[in-house]
Amino acid sequence: MAMSVGSNKGGAGRGRRGRGGRAAMSEINVTPFVDVMLVLLIIFMVTAPMLAAGVPVDLPDSKADPLDQQQDQITVSIDAQGAVFLDDEQLAPGELTERLAGLGRGTKPPLVTLRADRVLDWGRVAAVMGELNAGGFKSISLVTNSSSAPQ
Prior knowledge:
Low-confidence stretches: none
CATH class of one domain: Alpha Beta
Number of helices: 3
Strand content: 15-25%
GO molecular function, one term: transmembrane transporter activity
Structural class: alpha/beta
Mean pLDDT: 75
Strand order of the largest sheet: 4-3-2-5-6
InterPro entries: ExbD
Keywords: Cell membrane, Membrane, Protein transport, Transmembrane, Transmembrane helix, Transport
Family: Belongs to the ExbD/TolR family.
Order of helices and strands: HEEEEHEHEE
Oligomer: single chain
Number of strands: 7
Largest sheet: 5 strands, mixed
Helix content: 25-40%
Protein name: Biopolymer transport protein TolR
CATH architecture of one domain: 2-Layer Sandwich
């Protein structure tokens, strides 16, 4: 008398997970999700520095060490034609001092970074630094490209 353990009286393994039968997967395959996240991470890492500098400026080279980024930071840019920008907004001549007048009030003024094109006359850069000084900003960081040999 032979008896099979776990036999199915209604049929040979239908509806159950048996030999060669397919069952629904209860696990999520995370590999495609991780692939998409890594691609997005690379895209954001490449585009993030471009978002911080909206005005196209050809910066001079320097051996200076990079500064830490701060939350309350104002970026003043001067392009090759001498136009002054506060963050991404172009300002009229002489407007920089009055626009910065309200920003410097408080316990500690925000960090001011000055980005100036390499072809500019030093007098134009010094004039903008004078406007920043008149607006109450005594500490100004000059932004350059890091390189091994300054030009």
